[in-house]
Design a protein that fits this description.
The complex is a heterodimer of chains A (115) and B (164). Chain A is mainly alpha-helical. Chain A has 3 helices and no strands. Helix content of chain B is 89%, strand content 0%. Classes of the chains: A mainly alpha (115), B mainly alpha (164).
Chain lengths: 115, 164
Amino acid sequence: MVAGSVRPAANMNRLNQNTNDDGLATLLRAARPQTELPPRFRENVRRRIDHGEAHTASIIWLEALAGWLLKPRFAIPSIAVLLLMGTLIGSLNGQAQARLIAQERYVAMVVMPAH
Amino acid sequence: MRKPVLIVLIALAVGAALFGGAFYCARYFCVQPVATSTDDLDWLRMEFNLTEAHLAKIRVLHEGYLPICEANCRNIALKKRELKQAEAAGTNATETLRQLQAEVTALRTKCQTEMLAHFEEVSLAMPPEQGQRYLAEMKRLTLGSHEQVEESMSGASEHGREHH
């Protein structure tokens, strides 16, 4: 008997709640402004989301690179490699330049100039 | 967002400065000794890996040839001046002008012949392989430019003939 008396009350509450929800939904639907969506609304939204994702990816990439650059374990060998490369390429270029200067001087001495 | 960009930019600037500094320092130390040197034979030493013995032999030939070269240049310059004066004076004696032109040409030929003979002498003073390379290089530097001019001129005249 006790159980029977409780069950109808619970059903009543659920019924009321459903009725209230339906009412609320109707109210909300009525309150929602019925404006036309701008053209290509979905595409624009999708594009903005994609752009945001790409932007975030670039930030992550930059942060990782900056962090990497600040690590002495990476920074010191990088400096050494740059100095070595600069010296090597500079000396090769300088040798070629020196050879050219020396050649021009020798040729100017022994070759008949355009008379 | 700003901080990582700034770090990367500063790192790039520092890297470029380090590379550039090393490059220019190395280049300067390679070029400077040659640029300030007064030895005419630096190129032979550098290019043909000559020993001091070879270089001493070549130096004797070089110093012996320089007065000949200077005399040839002086004679050609004098003869050319003579020719110009004759032309400026409006000399009607075509024969005189022609003779002066022939003398300039003869002097130029003599100069070129002696120059080539000197190159051959120098090449013989070098190890055979280097000597051949030297001779080829000197011919390219001296006669090559004349040949290029001749070829370009003959090409131009043929081109001109096509149009006329």
